[in-house]
UniProtKB/TrEMBL annotation:
Residues covered by the AB hydrolase-1 domain: 26-264
Name of the protein in its database record: Alpha/beta hydrolase
Single annotated GO MF: hydrolase activity
Segment forming the signal sequence: none
Keywords linked to the UniProt accession: Hydrolase
Length: 278
């Protein structure tokens, strides 16, 4: 199993697990909370069949990567991504983030630029800034995030059960676009994640990306479901076209948060078309 070392905590290295498949232009897929890189399976198969090199990795604290007690902030997440990009010596790459992974894409481009990157995709994005403040009235109240942290501390497995109901809009899409088996598989991955990392990720969602976004000069595709209950469209993706110069927004009607799974039949053609644009 391939790993790249990104740090050290006491006697142990902090290692990021990755997979590097296929040949062609490199596409780097960055997963969402609280899952791992295998949550991209519907995109990985499509991209490999289309002739791309597909790189996926597990965020620190999740999947097969190390579970340290530190580093759950976007500067560190972006540094982890930069270490992987440098180790693999990627050029002309496309960064594709889903949900929490869109923060890595945004902060990476803000901190490290686009020397290695040709295009970006933000799917169900966190940016620009989730927290409601005086200068960000479109954001979400702090009390919502306080409640999430309280629920994680009280009973993390129970929190995940409720989270995935809203993640997939189970009351609407169960049996049509999502199965109980897929939900259980996601729960299993989430339950195996770092308890400390799970908790510490919540404050990271409140990162202010508004200074990073104007630095993104490469073509950027934004995809969001208009029925997203986790990251509401109006607080996130709908605001981005004005903040990212060379961007386009595609909205999935009836799409929940997990559009890369439930609506892969619509997301994948959008993604492939964007990749093939000159």
């Amino acid at each position: 199993m391939p790993y790249v070392t990104v740090g050290q905590e006491n006697s142990a290295t902090i290692d990021i697990y990755y997979e590097d498949l296929g040949a062609g232009q490199p596409i780097v897929l960055i997963h969402g909370f609280p899952l791992n890189s295998h949550s991209w399976e519907k995109q990985v198969l499509m991209l490999l069949n289309a002739g791309y090199r597909v790189i996926t990795y597990d965020r620190r604290g999740f999947g097969a990567s190390s579970q340290p007690s530190l580093g759950y902030d976007y500067d560190t997440f972006a540094a982890d991504l930069n270490t992987l990009m440098t180790k693999l010596d990627l050029h002309n790459a496309v960064l594709v983030g889903f949900s929490m992974g869109t923060g890595e894409v945004t902060r990476y481009l803000g901190n490290y630029g686009s020397k290695r990157v040709q295009k970006a995709v933000l799917m169900a994005p966190v940016p620009p800034f989730l927290l409601k403040t005086a200068d960000n009235p479109e954001g979400v109240d702090q009390s919502v995030f306080d409640g999430i942290m309280k629920a994680i501390v009280k009973d993390r497995p129970a929190y995940f059960s409720e989270f995935f109901r809203e993640f997939f809009n189970v009351d609407v899409l169960l049996g049509e676009r999502i199965s109980n088996y897929a939900i259980q598989a996601c729960w299993n991955v989430a339950a195996g994640a770092s308890a400390k990392g799970t908790l510490d990720c919540v404050p990271s969602w409140l990162t202010d990306f508004r200074d990073d976004l104007p630095r993104i000069g490469i073509p950027t595709l934004i995809i969001h479901g208009d029925a997203d209950r986790i990251l509401p469209l109006g607080s996130t993706a709908a605001r981005l076209p004005k903040l990212i110069k060379n961007s386009q927004l595609e909205i999935i009607p009836g799409g929940p948060h997990a559009i890369n799974w439930t609506h892969a039949d619509q997301v994948n053609p959008m993604l492939l078309d964007f990749l093939q644009q000159k």
